[in-house]
Write a structure and sequence with these properties.
alpha+beta; 5 strands
């Protein structure tokens, strides 16, 4: 049995470690959330648990891909599209106490609002 998960984060231009890279690295992210944080019931997902996605030797890959695509297209990606400004981003992350505080702290330190 193999588990994997996606860690999704928010990076702020003001806190990028190396602006010449023209890309964000894991270390640039102010917040880090596993994909399960965006799912309505990550503990009982069809292929896995709150530890992440699970693939076993008998997993039917077509069913897995459909389920995975459904999770991301219906739950994960829409959460990143909702906030249209920094205030809405802060409001969204308040439900994740530690990461919400981290985000708000970095926004204040960098005088982004």
């Amino acid at each position: 049995m193999e588990y994997f998960r996606f860690n999704l984060g928010i990076a702020l231009k003001a806190t990028l470690k190396d602006t010449t890279l023209k890309k964000v690295t894991h270390f640039d992210c102010v917040t880090h959330l596993g994909d399960g944080a965006f799912l309505p019931d990550s503990k009982n997902r069809k292929f896995g648990s709150n530890l992440g996605y699970e693939i076993e030797s008998e997993t039917h890959l077509d069913d897995f891909v459909i389920s995975f695509f459904n999770d991301f297209s219906n739950y994960v990606l829409p959460k990143f599209e909702e906030p249209s400004n920094i205030k809405e981003l802060i409001d969204f992350y308040k439900q994740f106490e530690f990461w919400g505080n981290q985000l708000e702290k970095q926004i204040e330190i960098n005088k982004l609002i």
